[in-house]
Amino acid sequence: MLGFRVSLVLRWTDPAETPATLRPCVATFGNFDGVHRGHRVVIDTLLAEAARRALPAVIVTFDPHPVQVLHPERAPELISPGTLHEELLEATGIDGLCVVPFTTAYAQQLPEDYIVSTFVEGLGVAALVVGADTKGFGRGYTGDVELIRDLGAAHGFDVVVVADQGEGMRWSSTAVRERLRDGDVEGAAEILGRPHRVVGTIVHGFHRGRELGYPTANLERRSRGVVPADGVYAGWFTRLDLPAEHPDRVLPAAISVGTNPTFDGTQRTVEAYCLDRTDLDLYGEEVAVDFVVHLRPTLKFDSIDELLVAMARDVDQARDILSGAR
Ligand SMILES: Cc1cc2nc3c(=O)[nH]c(=O)nc-3n(C[C@H](O)[C@H](O)[C@H](O)COP(=O)(O)O)c2cc1C
Ligand SMILES: Nc1ncnc2c1ncn2[C@@H]1O[C@H](COP(=O)(O)OP(=O)(O)OP(=O)(O)O)[C@@H](O)[C@H]1O
Known about the structure:
The chain is α/β, with parallel strands linked by helices. The protein has 2 domains: 10-162, HUPs (Rossmann fold, 3-Layer(aba) Sandwich); 196-323, Riboflavin kinase-like (Elongation Factor Tu (Ef-tu), domain 3, Beta Barrel). The protein has helices spanning 37-53, 66-70, 82-90, 104-107, 111-123, 145-155, 173-181, 185-192, 209-212, 304-322; strands at 10-12, 25-29, 57-63, 96-101, 125-131, 135-137, 143-144, 158-162, 196-203, 217-219, 231-239, 250-258, 269-274, 286-296. The protein has a 6-stranded parallel β-sheet with strand order 1-4-3-2-5-8, with helices on both faces. It has a 6-stranded antiparallel barrel with strand order 9-10-13-12-11-14. Flavin mononucleotide is lined by residues 205-209, 212, 214, 216, 218, 232, 254, 256, 260-263, 271, 273, 298-299, 307, 310-311, 314. This is Riboflavin biosynthesis protein.
């Protein structure tokens, strides 16, 4: 499960205004969408290199995601957008998070100017940690690890290169997105090192669920995080407004993603039935849905009775999978 600690991480947006307590530092940079296991190795290396030098550890990341600014037409939906992203990064144990507003002007900097102004002048970097495949930053997409090494030698900072990480493949945000698109939430979790999470507010559905015997909490349409392919899933439902120690904060759930074709629905929804709970009033609450196992595709049943038989089986399976899993 995701367990966010109370954050003592300093956060700012302009490298030129880096807090004095964080200079000099050890730093890394990137999008870190999803904060997957490859990213975690880079961040763990950052933490180790910072500890070795008794210096603060700082991540520089960008908002919006550079592709959203440079190529909005092919911008991917983010695995961990906005606050979810920043919480995941802050929970790693870093000391500072600089979230640079990404603009076309910022992207137009020559790669060497970007490294010098952001890291040498801005952060006073003593060591820069980067993944081995780091490339394509700055004007003309020409920045790479070799350039960073040259600049390290010229400006007196160390460069620590982390080899590609993965098991049978390079762990990447793209690979996570592909698995979610296929409904393979287990494969996505394998790369993420945790179940994939979607966050949103609970809104009213068609109020059929309670009559069916399975009241469902429907996520708003503009929920945050990639919505996996249509299907039925077992997962965890977290009521983010409740305190961490509240017994109803994290509940096992059977989750449906789809248009409810049995009812000729057209609007895609994410809805969760919290197992055996018909007493909850969740409207307006902020919740997180963590996708653990894909149970079956969404089906158009010929009758409500057939849907109910399938839902009863889904609920049994979800209970088996999730019992003792926390
Ligand atoms: C575990 C589970 C499985 C579901 N499977 C299907 C399905 O295969 N086909 C379908 O049309 N609807 C499916 N649904 C969605 C129900 O049709 C939906 O929950 C019901 O219509 C209530 O909708 P409402 O919340 O808008 O009132 C499923 C819901 C749950 C909780
Ligand atoms: N599997 C991996 N192994 C090692 N380093 C990685 C891996 N994935 C990403 N990194 C590194 O993490 C840092 C942040 O990566 P960022 O998200 O910006 O780019 P990325 O390489 O495009 O990631 P992804 O491919 O996952 O989208 C970079 O230094 C990158 O090289």
